[in-house]
Predict the 3D structure of the following.
Amino acid sequence: MRGNKGHIEIKNVTKIFSRNDQATTMTALSDINIDIQPGEFVSFVGASGCGKSTLLRIIAGLETPTQGEAYCDGEKIVEPSAKRGLVFQDPTLFPWLTVWDNVAFGLKATGRYKDSKEKIAELLKLIGLEEFHNSYPHQLSGGMSQRVSLVRALANEPDVLLLDEPLGALDAFTRMNIQDELIKLWQERGTTMVLITHDVDEAIYLSNRIIVMSPRPGRIIKEIKLNMYHPRNRGSTEFVDYRTQILKLLHFAKEEVAEYYL
Amino acid sequence: MSTTPLTREQLAELEKRPKSKLQQKLDYCISGAPIAFATLLLLNYHYLPNYKFNTTTAVYPLFVGIFLLHFIGWFLAGLFSKKLREKLREKAPFYSAVFLFLLFYDYLTLKTGKLPLPYFPWPDKILNAMIDDRLLLLDCIKNSLILLFTGYFFGAAIGLITGLAAGWSKQVHYWVMPIIRILGPIPSTTWLPIVLILASSLFKGSVFLIALGVWYPVTITTLTGVVNIRKSYFEVAKTLGAGEKRLIFKVALPAAMPNIFQGLTQGMSVACTTLMVAEMMGVESGLGWYITWQRGWAEFAKMYAAVIVICLTFTLVNFILTQVKKRVLRWQEGTIK
């Protein structure tokens, strides 16, 4: 466990985008306040357009909030940092680098490569791709690529791992496998995990806390703490209750949007 | 079915429709055609009387003979190896056509004089010219290559830097674009008369011209390549801790490499053209100079010899470039054909 690192605070964050085609603006996030504790596994669920990806990008340092601030371990987030690793839905592996060099990219960028060769080998072994270390990304399947993308972010030993629907494009079986791998990694390392997903089951299966968001403008409608031990049973009553509760909330959110437009 | 994995060839073999007897015989005939035509060529050369005072040497039949033996060997090896047989079947029509062309050309020049001297020397004459002048030709190849690669290297390097900088920085883009727009459409050879006067040496002037010709396509393709890189590559790199230097050299540069090689290939063809023009107009060495010089002596055989040497040299240069490209872009293999 890594003690007190990986504390994320979002304070009164509002993000407004200007639309390209017209002179209007769109509020993606409206007055968001969240405190994510070190070592916590937090998931954001919500319909598309609720600004959950924008929020993640703000935490990563890839977007600047229009109002309010985001902090990581007390420091204001102004630009991306190796402390906050990011995994996209698309693996985004560098196609010109081998699997090994992809994983080594962050370590080379932060000047730790020389002492970390064993670690890379270990990580590749962990995801069962040690034989593929010399392969290029186009030779890998979707699930393999996403695994590499995951360990590429992990190799840097970030304090926070930001996951933007990382399993969204994978088939159901691969998805469940990687979910278990994620749990294992999280339990071993105690990295703070922030997951964006629209798969409610995935959120319940993985997280300590689920934050439900509603769209237009994106805001938090409910925070749910989950008191369940891992490994969780997808068929247990508790699990199903949480699912019903969240789906109800999301449905409610939808109705409210309809009213809003009427 | 066996469980060992099959190669692509084996799979194609399994799924292929069987060939008919007639087709198989036809395949053998086509595969033997180069041998037949080369033999015919030699018989024609040796037995048909020459036109008027045309003389011949043993160089050409020796040369053709080597090829003939090569094809006989290939045909015989094909009887045992399926791979060689199929390769020969594929290449045979082309080589047959080449021998047929040479046969007719010999007939029209050497044997009947329908295409007259000095403008149309027969292959034997050209080969002899090449052999007689080999030392000078080798020297010319050397000088041409030195000039070509000096200019190409500078042009490509500066083009790469310009393209990367303009693709990366808006400010550089602002200042570089007008220059590219104005200079780009002017063929670099246009500057030749001016450069030949202004440059302190013809070599330096020609290097400048070749570099200019290479610079333009390399700059444009590098710029396009960098501008079109997926934004997410940079985002991922940044979250992995990459600074600006790393973003430029470890992300932008390799991601733009496929485009850059398009520019390098285009640049090579421009460089070859510029080289020839520069050598024909001013530089007093190299293959282009050799051709103009031999024209002064009305040595047509030597001019043709030089054309052939130029063809071989530039083919070799482009082959090397393609190999480098394959090596550098091996990560693309299979994704783009």
In short: Residues 18-122 of chain B form one domain. The mean pLDDT of chain B is 89. The first helix of chain B runs from residue 8 to 15. The interface with chain A takes residues 230, 232-233, 235-243, 246, 250-251, 254-255, 257, 330-335 of chain B (CB under 8 Å).
